[in-house]
Amino acid sequence: MSDDNNNKISHLGVDLSYHNSDVNWDELAASGCEFVMLRIGFRGYTEGGIAVDEKFKEYSKEAKRVGLKLGVYFFTQAISVEEAEEEADF
To answer: Any bridge partners for residue 48, and if so which?
Structure first.
């Protein structure tokens, strides 16, 4: 998307985690995608522990290989200040 002066004001990207399987990284990069946001980890819904997304390392390596910019996020489900601090430290 561009403004009236033809300046780009938005960028095309995708959010990926272990829920997204069979990513064709070469096709994704060729599609015009500019960046990926990868889930680095999450707090388990039932047990409450912190876990690393099992696809994070593979997906970050592949994103770099095909030249996509990379951002990360942590999916939070903290229910206390202590849990929120633990997630922030992670």
So the answer is: none
**Beta-strand pair 69-75/35-43:** parallel
CA distance 10 to 18: 26
Q: Which helix (H) or strand (E) holds 81?
A: helix 81-89
Asked if 71 and 35 count as a contact pair (C-beta separation under 8 A), the reply is yes
pLDDT per residue as tens digits for the range 10-43: 889 999 999 998 899 999 999 999 999 999 999 9
Phi, psi of 9 (to 5 degrees): -120, 5
Tell me the residue length of the chain.
90
Q: Return the CA Rg of the chain.
A: 16
